[in-house]
Amino acid sequence: MTKVTVYTDGAARGNPGPGGYGAVAEFVDSKGELHTREYSGGYKKTTNNRMELMGAIAALEALNRPCEINLYSDSKYVIDAFNQHWLEGWIKKGWKKSDGKPVKNVDLWKRLVAAKEPHNITFHWVKGHDGHPQNERCDTLATRAADGGDLMEDTGLEE
């Protein structure tokens, strides 16, 4: 399996407000060459959590074969959903939280679960805005996308 390292971030100017995501994927080919791919996009009105999810989704959906992935995010929302097994409970309870309330952003969680399916992923939390080069790059991609002029509609945003 190809080993890929993925870094992701999301940003929103207001919550909700204009937002964007950024992701960086890195892998070393059989010749020992490092390859880096960057992904970003922006939305007219969205939330920070939705953009954190979109960063991970964009990177995973871009992969064209099963990979062994180390995914780094500064979003406890994304990382803890997997590492604390929240996601498993939400799915078992029909996308309801332990308090019986509906899980937010179900459209993106379902998309992330599908994108994750063919891969072996280990999720890692990294402190945001702490000088980590790839995390800082993802932040730049996300904020640049949020501030861009060609913003998409976030059709899944629940008001």
Structural description of this entry:
The protein has 159 residues and is of the alpha/beta class. The chain has one domain (2-146): Ribonuclease H-like superfamily/Ribonuclease H (Nucleotidyltransferase, domain 5), CATH 3.30.420. The chain is built from five helices and five strands. It has helices at 48-62, 76-83, 86-92, 106-116, 133-146, and strands spanning 2-12, 17-28, 34-46, 67-73, 120-125. The protein has a five-stranded mixed beta sheet with strand order 3-2-1-4-5. Helix 1 runs parallel beside helix 4.
Quick overview:
By secondary structure, the protein is an alpha/beta fold. 35% of the residues lie in helices and 31% in strands.
The H-and-E topology, N to C, reads as EEEHEHHHEH
Main sheet: strand order: 3-2-1-4-5
The name of the CATH topology is Nucleotidyltransferase, domain 5
Number of strands: 5
Low-confidence stretches: none
Average pLDDT, rounded to a whole number, is 96
Distance between the termini: 41 Å
Largest sheet: 5 strands, mixed
Query: Roughly what percent helix?
Result: 25-40%
CATH architecture: 2-Layer Sandwich
- What's the helix count? 5
The structure class reads: alpha/beta
Structural domain tally: 1
Query: What is the molecular shape?
Result: globular
Alpha-carbon Rg, integer? 15 Å
